[in-house]
Automatic annotation (TrEMBL):
Keyword Chloroplast: no
UniProt keyword annotations, A-Z: FAD, Flavoprotein, Metal-binding, Oxidoreductase, Zinc
Alphabetical list of InterPro entries matching this protein: FAD-bd_oxidored_4_C, FAD-bd_PCMH, FAD-bd_PCMH-like_sf, FAD-bd_PCMH_sub2, FAD-linked_Oxase-like_C, FAD-oxidored/transferase_4, Oxid_FAD_bind_N, Vanillyl_alc_oxidase_C-sub2
Cofactor(s) listed in the protein's UniProt record: FAD
Reaction(s) the record says it catalyses: (R)-2-hydroxyglutarate + A = 2-oxoglutarate + AH2
Ranges of residues in domain FAD-binding PCMH-type: 37-216
A Pfam family annotated for this UniProt entry: FAD-oxidase_C
Record keyword Secreted present: no
Listed GO MF terms: (R)-2-hydroxyglutarate dehydrogenase activity; FAD binding; metal ion binding
Name of the protein this chain belongs to: D-2-hydroxyglutarate dehydrogenase
């Protein structure tokens, strides 16, 4: 069957006007935030129901057409890129909150519900959805589940998988499964729900998800502290964890801060220039907690771990302090950064960062390097900025040559080559640094069960 005939048949499975093939749509929906691969999808389809998704998957199996899921397209691993004539299945039209259970504090969402949409819904109910990151306004719940999204609150609340009570999926075979049925306790064999979390759409598509909510935090307060060196950051973390229940502990370098301040959107936290900064958030539920935070800050200053700092006194100041961290990715996007999203156990972070920094300094002496990350959970973001005199392809090629040494170091520390961005296409050739050959073989065998024809997001996680 010709491509034109395939597209005409696809149109019969969804509502009128819900299959797009114009060049602008193919470009927009065929890519995510990565810039490594040129989008080249066959078509974009917009289902509005689980039944339509099931029909699309069965059609794809019949004609051996590959499918790529598309949410907010904010991914950073090319997990939602369609570069080889696939049909992109966009969940933009499946964006409704379907039900709320006040007793269980759960919300049934379609996969196209934006993260911020769920956060605001929870807030309206006096509750809280804690998975949060800079792209919350455009990222979608289905994509968050597909990558097991983390973000800035993991130290307190964990990853997306901690908040998925149940889900309805369409497998790669076209079957509909209801997984876990929203139960807290369910000891009836394999928890297939967990297989789909982090699977990047390679096993099937999430068409409904029941998300748990939490109580709303009280009087969130942040400190931004400047440290004389990175080795001082970890004692600061230890000191604050021993005295407070933290909701976040982030770090960023002076180069990251300089890029944000240069835009002029937010003021500097204080006058002292420091090589590294920590952002600490906690609930100041009473004056005693706030006093304890100040005492811990003073202790860190006395120990020489902190040079200067500031604590938010209002919601506006809290928001401005968070902008120093959350605006980094958006700000450095101008330089087409080469990103590595790596993690080790928290206690190994200082030695690990020194080893990686040495590799980077040796091999990228002329490149600007920006560090930031979720230091409280061992997740570091290494960003290498593209010089103006290099093309994108030349720059990425130079960066890729050093990946071997970076990932060999990750392997030595028993770390992960992708802490929260997923594997996609950008990290698939490096999977063996974090997973043994036996593990990869079992993962591929699982995929073959759910997707025997290999139509579900092929080329992601594993090479085709």
């Amino acid at each position: 069957m010709t491509n034109l005939a395939l597209i005409e048949e696809l149109k019969t499975l969804v509502d009128a006007g819900k299959v797009l093939t114009d060049a602008d749509s193919l470009d927009a929906y065929g890519k995510d935030w990565t810039k490594h691969f040129a989008p080249a999808p066959l078509a974009i389809v917009f289902p509005k129901s689980p039944e339509q998704v099931q029909a699309i998957v069965r059609w794809a199996n019949q004609h051996k057409v590959a499918l790529v899921p598309s949410g907010g397209r904010t991914g950073l691993s090319a997990g939602a890129v369609a570069a080889n004539g696939e049909v992109v299945v966009s969940f933009d039209n499946m964006n409704q909150i379907l039900a709320f259970n006040e007793m269980d504090r759960t919300v049934v969402c379609q996969p196209g519900v934006a993260t911020q949409q769920l956060q605001e819904f929870a807030q309206d109910k006096g509750l809280y959805y804690p998975v949060d990151f800079a792209s919350a306004g455009s990222s979608q719940i289905g994509g968050n589940i597909g990558t097991n999204a983390g973000g800035i609150k993991v130290i307190r609340y964990g990853m997306t998988r901690n908040w998925v009570a149940g889900m309805k999926v369409v497998t790669g075979k076209g079957d509909v499964l209801e997984l876990n049925k929203d139960l807290i306790k369910n000891a009836t064999g394999y928890d297939l729900r967990q297989l789909f979390i982090g699977a990047e759409g390679t096993l099937g598509f999430v068409v409904e998800a029941t998300m748990r909510l939490d109580r709303a935090p009280k009087n969130l307060t942040a400190l931004v502290l400047g440290a004389p060196d990175f080795d001082s950051i970890m004692p600061v973390l230890h000191a604050f964890q021993n005295s407070l229940d933290l909701t976040a502990f982030e770090f960023f370098s002076d180069k990251a801060l300089a890029k944000v301040l240069a835009r002029g959107d937010v003021p500097a936290p204080f006058e002292t220039d420091c090589p590294f900064y920590a952002l600490i958030e906690f609930e100041a539920v009473n004056d005693e907690v706030a006093e304890q935070a100040l005492n811990t800050f003073e202790h860190c200053v006395e120990q020489g771990w902190v040079l200067d700092g500031v604590m938010s006194q209002s919601e506006q100041q809290l928001e401005n302090l968070w902008k120093l961290r959350e605006y980094i990715s958006e700000t450095i996007a101008h330089w087409t950064p080469y990103k590595n999203d790596i993690s080790v156990t928290v206690g190994q972070v200082p030695a690990f960062l020194r080893d990686i920094d040495e590799i980077v300094a040796k091999n990228y002496p002329d490149f600007e390097v920006v560090w930031f990350g979720h230091i409280g959970d061992g997740n570091l973001h290494l960003n290498i900025l593209k010089p103006d005199n290099l093309s994108k392809d030349e720059f990425f090629a130079q960066c890729a040559t050093v990946n071997q040494w970076v990932f060999e170091t990750v392997q030595q520390y028993n770390g992960s080559i992708s802490a929260e961005h997923g594997v996609g296409m950008t990290k698939r050739d490096y999977l063996h640094y974090s997973r043994s050959a036996e593990e990869v073989a079992y993962m591929q065998a699982i995929k073959a069960v759910f997707d025997p024809n290999g139509i579900m997001n092929p080329g992601k996680i594993f090479p085709v």
